[in-house]
Amino acid sequence: MPLPSDAPPVGRSLLRDDVYRRLRDAIVDGTLRPGEQLRDAEIGAWLGVSRTPVREALLRLEGNGLVVTQPGRSTAVSEIDEKSLRDARDVVAAMHTLAVQEVAGRLSADDIAGMRDANRRFAEAIRAGDAAAALDSDEELHAIPIRVLGNRAVEKVLEQFGPLVRRAELIRFSDDGHASIERHERMIDLCERHDGAGAAAAAFATWQSLPTSTESR
Questions:
Q1: φ/ψ (deg, to 5) at 156
Q2: Closest Cα to residue 141, out of 112, 160, 115?
Q3: Is 70 helix (H, G, I), strand (E, B) or coil?
C-alpha cells in the first residue's frame, strides 16, 4: 500500500492517549486489580513505550479516580470507594438523562435499531455470563443518544467520570444484569414514541439502579 512520503509522524498526544486507554480498559475490566502496584518501567515494557507517556496516562487515571498516587512512594489501582462511585454515578446519570431527553424526538430509525441490537447482544451476554461483552454492548447502546446529542461538554464529563462507573457496572453484570435488559427496552420504546420525558425518566432509573454500597457488591 503506497503511503505519502510527506506524512507527519504520529503525534506524542496520540501515543499518550493510547497508553491511557489501554491502562483505563485494563483497570475497568479487572486485568489490573484494586491495590495492584503500577510501575512506570513495567508498564512501559508491556506497552512498548517510554516512561513519559506512561506517567502522563497515570496522571489522567488519577483524575478519573482509577489510580491513587502517594508522592515519592507508589502508584496503585484504586479501591472502589462508595462515595466516589456514588458521586460519579449521579453525574453520569444526569448526563445520560439529559441526552435521552434532548434526542428522543430525533433519533432515526437506524439509531433505534442500533439501540435494540445492542440490547439484544447485551441480553445474550448476560445469559451467557459474559460480563465483559455485556459491558461493551451496554456502552454501545448508551453511546447512541450521546452521539446524536453532539454536546462536547457532556462527552467530556462522561470521559472523566464514566470509567469509574463502568468498573462498578462490570461487577454488577458479573452478578446479575437481567433487570437491565427490561430497563433498556423500556427506554428504547419511549424513545421510539418520541416521549422525551418518559425516556429520560427511564434512563435515569437505569443509571440510578447501579448499587454503590460495597456490601451490595
A1: -65, -40
A2: 115
A3: strand
